[in-house]
Amino acid sequence: MVIVLAIVAAVPLANYIATSASRTLFLSRSNDADWFATMAESPLQTGDIASLRELAVRYHELYNTPVFVVDVDRRVIATSRSGVDVQESDLDAALDSTLAGRLPAEPPALWPWRSGEMVVARPVVNNGRVLGAAVLRVPTEKGRDQVERGLLLLLGGLLISIGAVVIGIVRPVTRWVLRPLNDLDNATHQVTRGALDTRVSTDGRAPELRRLGDSFNSMALSLHQARQREREFVADASHQLRTPLTSARIHIEGLSRLSPTARFALSDIDRLGRIVQRLSRLAGSDRPGDIEGSDDALDLAQAVKERLVGWKAVYAADDLELIIGEMVPGGVAPELEVDDILDVLLDNASKYGAPPVEVSVTRDGTEVVLSVRDHGLGLGSRDLKKVGERFWRSAHHREMPGTGLGLAIVRSEAARVGGRVVARPPVGGGLVIEVRVPLIEDYDI
Where does the record place a coiled coil (predicted)? Predict the structure, then answer.
């Protein structure tokens, strides 16, 4: 019984020693990987990799740690040693996560009986777009030796203290004290790595640990909310401001030959000012309801027809066909940003689709549906499920200009009034993007 209790007490301590050594090594080399990712940003764009290769070789010689850099297609651009095989299981999994912009996987514990190198990978990012990844193959011999010494010390300490420990309190104390502390330690490391949505359980804990857990959860929630507002504001503002500025420039350039565009130049500039004001308010608010709006319902069909006047001229200037389909009146929430939504959908259709592009407004039960259909190559079933995700772009369109934020903003605008965005393949090929928003039943047409 005493031996069993000793093992029960030793297992979480041993796991903590091995896991802590693994995390310490991982975090120490993560800073180096971040530095290489920063240094690789320019070479991946310009193709000048001589200096990057020299840095990798010097680092390898100094720290005995191989380094290599790959592009988004997993081609090795620079390496400190030859023979890198990115198809190895550990490298393949790390590159899958890193090139997708996700957090790196938790490193395995450094048990003495395990061998191999630790993979530390960081994405190379420019303006929200992943260009490649910087990868370190970190030797783990010293870390495993340190864990082995720690385990031997732990074993010796347990053998010495077995006779002095009261059998009735070993198991509950070990489980009650070490497990919540280990949970809190794991959660702290997760937050350090950027996983700000990490939380710890406070059920069944001692009062002091429960207060500590509540304080940690409150801190993590505040950090998560602040980071989310910051990222969304920067991403949305940069994308939202680009569209009206480009539109205004097009209108002004077309004054000499396209008279319908004349009255839209000043309108778009004014709209830019309203966007800046709205984004500024959103940056300081957690709830969409904090944004003030009109009480009068908006006729979606009428708002779309008014915006299409300018877009018909823009499409005509580029020899593209824009078809205005069925326009069924229907009242929607007045705060719906119809101009922003239509600008994104028509801009995407002209860049990624093929003419003719057809716009229509219909009703479907309790929803008013704004549809934009193009006749391009469309998207596969897997890609259709990802439409609207931030920074996501189809593999067919990654070489084209853009940030992958347009449809994410459309989805956010629709959700703000209780709506949704649906992408589907129409009969005859192409792609249909539907913005479905609730119909205001008492709207007077």
Answer: none
